[in-house]
Backbone:
């Protein structure tokens, strides 16, 4: 059986694109090991700790019912709160997937600014919980709420159309791509979905709400993250739970390696046959 060079190259291409997604967990915290929020941060953090959790005079951080909770009792003042991780979570990961449970309660006035409650990922972050400037941020999302108790949404940080409104706790999945090309990943609804380079997708539950949103600063790497609940925000209680961050990468399926090995054997046999024929003709 002879395999032409164009066909051989095509078969290798198909084989190499048959890949599984490998997820390496870089950070994981479900806030059940302690009821003291100070146990969840350290100057030399473990894989489940922040570098800091900050709390304001009337913007207070607590561990409540196994969640990290921030309660802001005064609108427009009372200090900022939030969490930050400045110790690198990985060696320059190319694609990060954030997953967490988010909830809002105690809200009675609209919070629509895209700068008062932000989750950011990038590099070179400061240890305080003031939101980072755009130059340090690869990507960011912002949390909003309405005047209806418990109703909230997420928008691209810095403007753009927000997600649908949700009430109650929901799982948020945020996939940030800094790999240099588009990236296929397994979505929360079990579909295979592609996110553009230097862009992100955001899912709430099984619904894709924000699609391939362009990065804030594409030149930044993905080593630090921060949530900032700024003092100018309206009053509400927000909570995070089951916060997990994974580095995603594509790994060829075992069947692909077997196929490539088969192609290599066929190629070697064909090469030997050509050399043998050439030698016979020369004789």
Residues:
């Amino acid at each position: 059986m002879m395999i032409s060079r164009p066909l051989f190259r095509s078969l290798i291409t198909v084989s190499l694109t048959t890949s599984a997604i490998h997820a390496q967990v870089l950070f994981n915290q479900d806030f059940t090991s302690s009821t003291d929020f100070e146990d969840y941060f350290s100057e030399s953090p473990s894989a489940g700790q922040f570098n800091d959790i900050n709390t304001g005079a009337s913007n207070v951080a607590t561990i409540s019912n196994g969640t990290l909770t921030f309660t802001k009792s005064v609108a427009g003042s009372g200090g900022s709160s939030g969490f930050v991780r400045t110790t690198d979570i990985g060696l320059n990961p190319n694609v990060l997937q954030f997953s967490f449970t988010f909830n809002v309660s105690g809200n009675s006035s609209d919070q629509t600014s895209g700068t008062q409650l932000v989750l950011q990922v990038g590099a070179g972050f400061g240890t305080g919980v003031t939101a980072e400037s755009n130059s340090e941020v690869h990507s960011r999302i912002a949390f909003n709420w309405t005047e209806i108790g418990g109703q909230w949404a997420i928008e691209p940080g810095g403007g753009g159309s927000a997600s649908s409104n949700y009430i109650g706790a929901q799982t948020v999945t945020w996939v940030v791509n800094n790999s240099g090309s588009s990236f296929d990943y397994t979505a929360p609804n079990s579909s295979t979905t592609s996110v553009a380079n230097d862009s992100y997708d955001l899912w709430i539950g099984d619904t894709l709400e924000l699609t391939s949103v362009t990065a804030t600063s594409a030149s930044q790497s993905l080593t630090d993250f921060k949530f900032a609940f700024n003092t100018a925000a309206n009053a509400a209680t927000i909570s995070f739970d089951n916060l997990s961050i994974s580095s995603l990468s594509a790994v060829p399926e075992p069947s692909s390696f077997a196929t490539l090995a088969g192609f290599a054997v066929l190629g070697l046999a064909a090469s030997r046959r050509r050399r043998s024929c050439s030698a016979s003709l020369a004789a």
About this structure: The chain has a mean pLDDT of 88. The longest strand covers residues 236-252.
